Amino acid sequence: MEQQTEKQIERRVAKRIAKWIAIGIAGVIGITIFIFLGGKVVQLLWNWLLPPLFGVPAVTFWQGLGLLVLSRILFGGLGRGGHRGPRGPYSREDKERFKARIRERWGRASTVGEGSLHS
Hints:
Layout: H1 2-54, H2 61-76, H3 92-106
Helix pairs in contact: 1-2
């Protein structure tokens, strides 16, 4: 009875390992396709729009991929992309401290609707 249970456990473990290997392989293939398509789309859009409009030279696939990476770094950030939860990057306390500093520096009428700035 114990040997059947051990064999069943071994089969389940083997199936789980095979499943995760398949997921890993599919992930690598998916990321490769995504990178290729991203670079190709940037290349095609650049070569379709910019040379006729501005007279700039056409780009190769690798230059298009480089532009995609550069735009991600400059505009999308790295890692989580700057998203820090449903309330945005600042907590309620951070916002209150910011408002208090603005009031200290510029006076009581620093927010919209409280009056003019020159009161």
